[in-house]
Amino acid sequence: MSDFFGIENLIILAIAVAIFLRLRSVLGRRTGSERPPYDPYAPKPADANERASDNVVTLPRQPSAPAGAAEPVDLDARLKGVAKTGTPLYDGLAAIIAVDPAFEPRTFTDGASMAYEMIVTAFANGERETLRPLLSPEVFEGFDAAIAAREAAAQTMSTTLIGIEKIAITDATLKDSMARVTTRIESQMITANYDKAGELISGDPNKVVDVVDVWTFERDTQSKDPNWALVATESA
């Protein structure tokens, strides 16, 4: 009786070994296309938008039409309320649109408003790295010199932009591939300057003042970079 069970056990063992070897030959084979082991603590790849610099303000542009689907631009509709037909401003904007059909004056002023707020705030805080990509080298040099003078005197500046009351395009030109657009920006802000002891030397931290600036932005229409740089500033 014990011999019978001994032989039966050997047969079962042999069958189990055969099944194991067959499964191993199939399931244990690597094809080279397996997914790598999942690591829940591994850093996630950065999103393309997150990799972009947070300091750069891209003035919005109208999406380009798909290749081969270009449509004629209705200038009167595009420039309605922005420039009157037959004026130098209308002709200047029309010239820019002719080489860059994606240019949209209304969304441009939206972006210029964002750039204005960022630049005014960064200048007051002395944030050079925020200013650098938004300004032309010449304008940045002027801003940098003003910040350096303030730092040398151990002075601080506080600026609060209450809001932009009005922004309008007042001039537009195209020279070769360089487009220039000038904007008149009417805003309200609170500005105060303090000496190293914290004493007020100019401005008023409790007074809202009206400010009118004329800023000019420039962009190479042949460049793939959609950003406009501030190239000139003046107070009206």
Proportion of beta-strand residues:
25-35%
Shape type: elongated
How many distinct beta strands?
A: 5
Question: How far from one another are the termini?
Answer: 114 Å
The CATH class assignment of the domain at 74-235 is Alpha Beta
The succession of helices and strands, N to C, reads: HHHHHHHEEEEE
Explained architecture:
This protein is α+β, with helices and mostly antiparallel strands and 236 residues long. The chain has a domain at 74-235: Nuclear Transport Factor 2, Chain: A, CATH 3.10.450. 37% of the residues lie in helices and 25% in strands. Strands 1, 2, 3, 4 and 5 form a five-stranded antiparallel sheet that branches. Strand 1 and strand 2 form a beta hairpin. The chain is elongated and about 60 Å long.
What would you say about this model in short?
Helix content is 37%, strand content 25%.
Please give a handful of descriptors for the protein shown.
single chain, 236 residues, Nuclear Transport Factor 2, Chain: A, disordered N terminus
